Structure formats: C-alpha cells, structure tokens
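Collaborator request log, item 7. Partner lab (contact: R.S.) asked for a structural prediction of Immunoglobulin domain-containing protein to inform their binding assays.
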Amino acid sequence: MKLAVLFVLAHGVSSVGADGLSAFVMDGDSVTLRTDVKTNHREYIKWYFNDTRIAQMTGDLSYICTDVQCNKGTERFRGRLKLDHQTGSLTVTDTRNIDSGVYKLRITISSNINEKIFIVAVYDVPAAERDEMKRKSVKEGESVTLDPGVMKNTNDLMTWHFNDLCIAEISEEPRKICTDVQCKDGDERFRNRLRLDQQTGSLTIMNITITDSGVYELKIINSSFSIIRSFSVTVTGSGLSLAAEYVLLLLEFCC
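Returned to partner:
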C-alpha cells in the first residue's frame, strides 16, 4: 500500500516540504483533490470523509455515486461534490467550515491499493472582509485590482478567466506570463488594459468599461490540487453627460 499525505488549510497556497503540500482555502472557494491518474477501466476509486464514503466510481463508469447516493442519510455536502469521470478527482464546491476534516482517496487495481490523505481545513471569513475582497464596484474609467490573497508557489499554475476565456496566466515550468490576446484563448476585449503581478498573481484591469462587468475566476493548479476563487466586478457609469461620453468615444476611435 502506498500512502501520501497532503494538507489543505485556509487563505493561500504554499509548500511544506517534499512529502506534502498545503493549500489555503477561503470559504466559498471550490477545491479539487486530484488523483493524478487516468482511469483505464480497471480501477475502483473511493473517496472518504472522516471515514464515511462520500464518492465512488469504477473505471468503466458502470457505477458512480456521490454523497447521499453512496450512503443514505449522508447529506453533508448536499450536491456540492463532483467526480471527474476521466481521473476520479473529487471537487468540493462552495466550501464551508463543516467541510473541514480528513479526506482519503483509495484506488484499487487488482490486489494493489494506493491511498492518499488530504487534510482539509476551511475557515470562515467575516462577510465584510470576504465581500471587500471578492466583490468590486468601480466607476467606468477607473482601475480595479483583484487580489487573490495568496502567496504564489513556484510550482503553481495561476490562470484568470472571464466569460470562460483565459485572459491571464503565470506558470514557472516552462516560465510563461501572458495577458489578453497573448494567451492561447484570449481575445482583444481588454486591449492592453491588463496588468499581472508576477509575485502575487493579482490582476489589475485599467481604464475599465461597463462591458468588463461580470465574474472573474482565478484558478490555482498543481499536480495535487486546484482551487477556484471567484470575483464579482460591477462597473457603473462615469457620470459624464451623454455629450461628453460621445466626444470621448470619437476621440478613442479617431485618434
């Protein structure tokens, strides 16, 4: 039996040594615990939370269950669990304090059993603090910075998404930094108005427009886990008169 231990704590991302990883999860985030395998129709994959089976699948997908489907009366997660049918990785969405505990992955292939332990601690963040960080309201023409509130690990891939398009990315292996159209799936919506902090992964949107309103997602990914943190941005009018806005629009396109 092979056993690995990983630690998932709260508020950021950092490594803790060769034998494990720590991740910081704010309540409301989504976290994926990775199996690091691809199914080949012969595996039996089971997930346990505090020794209670919460998810299971066979490699040939003939049997799949999560939460109450696996154990009647076990409704702790109430539809917040997702199993990746290709890898068996488990995602907990909208994490809460009650999700704290020990998650165990057991992969059985013939007579071989591999186990991996994830210790998850999700801490409540005061609503005012959470809203200040994750909900931004700005006026058109201003700049806004979306700060993930984490310490970037050199092994992590960090990507920012808007309307399901990757608009910014930082990776170390191989080293890559891109914003907007430089990214594989990017477009010209932001037209050089994005700035990415290489140390923290913070994303700044400059000269913001009303069409930039929406949900921005930060994904922090490595081989053992991934975290998704969402930010809501609302852009209101600048308060200029219609005539002034028309003049600015003409200047933008003619000069």
